[in-house]
Automatic annotation (TrEMBL):
This is Putative serine protease 41. CDD domains: Tryp_SPc (cd00190). SUPFAM superfamilies: Trypsin-like serine proteases. Residues 15-217 form the Peptidase S1 domain. PANTHER family: ACROSIN-RELATED, SUPPRESSOR OF TUMORIGENICITY 14 PROTEIN HOMOLOG-RELATED.
């Protein structure tokens, strides 16, 4: 079990090495890139890079709980055909039980940590958001009292054939509705990867709607009103069994 490098929305985080996680100056955000290892000579490798000026960790964050942070960038993001903002709602009930939401990431392919092969393209998969009664039932062996409270939910396929894995944490769970995309979840953790009855666990973005709004309005008071804030995951966990 350990912390892993995270994706941020559909952006690429360039992990600088051994420094702490929460120093904004150690992080760079890139948009519109689909490979996690851009070719050195590719001109896109060095474009659309943004400096991070602030990392706002949810004050209630403890390991798998309230697993959300916001990044403030040093300038506004230029949108184009491939780089677009995403909507966040204060309720996600209309996405519950829908079988056609998507998760994306550059994580490993299975519990054996099989790495994503070249050209390291972003992978995506369709998952169903389950209700918390179901999630608590499926994870009841953990005897945590209500592991799934409103701040997180589980999603996947019950046969376990579709799931996120190590390295996907921080990535988005998105659903489309009438031509608009909504970010419903953030990949957080899971019990192994792709096991039957062990759907992946996601931060419930709707639960943090007001917190996100508050942070954004605070940043709007600053000298540069349009600085964007991005959702990100703080610590990424997968409870990988060793046996
Ligand atoms: C992981 O490796 C073990 C031992 O080599 C193998 O038996 C198992 O099928 C592999 N699992 C996956 C998901 O690839
Ligand atoms: C939760 O989902 C299960 C199926 O996954 C369903 O049987 C149950 O009725 C749902 N409960 C609520 C409260 O929606
Ligand atoms: C997510 O949070 C919202 C707002 O608190 C809540 O209404 C909803 O039931 C939660 N979703 C799940 C799947 O738990």
């Amino acid at each position: 079990m350990g912390a892993r490098v995270r994706a941020l929305l559909l952006a690429l985080l360039l992990w600088p090495g051994a420094a702490g996680y929460n120093n904004p100056f150690d992080w760079t955000v890139q948009f519109g890139e689909v490979t996690s290892k851009p070719w050195f000579w590719n001109p896109w490798t060095y474009s659309n890079l943004y400096k991070v000026v602030d990392i706002i960790i949810n004050p209630k964050y403890v390991r798998a709980f309230h697993d959300i942070a916001l990044l403030r960038l040093d300038s506004s993001v230029s949108f184009n055909q491939y780089v677009q903002p995403i909507c966040v709602l204060s309720s996600n009930s209309k996405f519950l039980h829908r079988p056609d939401c998507w998760v994306a990431g550059w994580g490993v392919l299975d519990e054996n940590q099989t790495a994503l092969p070249p050209p390291y393209s972003l992978r995506e998969a369709q998952v169903t958001v389950l209700n918390n009664t179901r999630c608590n039932y499926l994870y009841s062996q953990y005897s945590f009292q209500s592991l799934f409270s409103e701040f997180s939910f589980c999603a996947g396929s019950e046969d376990g054939k579709v799931d996120t894995c190590s390295g996907d944490s921080g990535g988005p769970l998105v659903c489309d509705q009438d031509g608009l995309w909504y970010q419903v979840g953030i990949v957080s953790w899971g019990d192994g990867c792709g096991r039957p009855n062990r759907p992946g666990v996601y931060t419930n973005v709707s639960f943090f709607f007001h917190w996100i709004q508050m942070q954004m309005s605070r940043s709007a008071l600053g000298p540069e009103p349009s600085r964007p804030l991005l959702l990100a995951l703080l610590w990424a966990h997968r409870l990988l069994r060793t046996a």
